[in-house]
């Protein structure tokens, strides 16, 4: 059975000697990892301890190794009543990622296409014949 915690439960664990964080609706006891965190203890304490740190975690673009390492510290799930705010954030975050993707305009497609047609026409279909 999975343990269920509220944000209020998590907020009580906000020191380097007893630190829980919420990431993507999962609750982690990262106390043992605090001294090894490459970003320093201070960052964990100020930005993550006893909080939902999903946004801060994603802003850093943590590696896959960091995400895999994190799994060993999972102790439960966030209560569904506290997940509502997370769902709103995640949809906004996903929309931002979609908006940040480069957009293909007509010019970015047509210019290289026309250049390729001209080169093919000039050098393949009608090459210059040099007479020596």
From TrEMBL:
SUPFAM superfamilies from the UniProt entry: Cytochrome b5-like heme/steroid binding domain
InterPro entries the record matches: Cyt_B5-like_heme/steroid-bd, Cyt_B5-like_heme/steroid_sf, Cytochrome_b5
Transmembrane segment boundaries: 105-124
Protein's organism: Phycomyces blakesleeanus
Family: Belongs to the cytochrome b5 family.
Protein name from the UniProt record: Cytochrome b5
Keywords, sorted A to Z: Heme, Iron, Membrane, Metal-binding, Transmembrane, Transmembrane helix
Keyword Ligase in annotation: no
Domain Cytochrome b5 heme-binding: 2-79
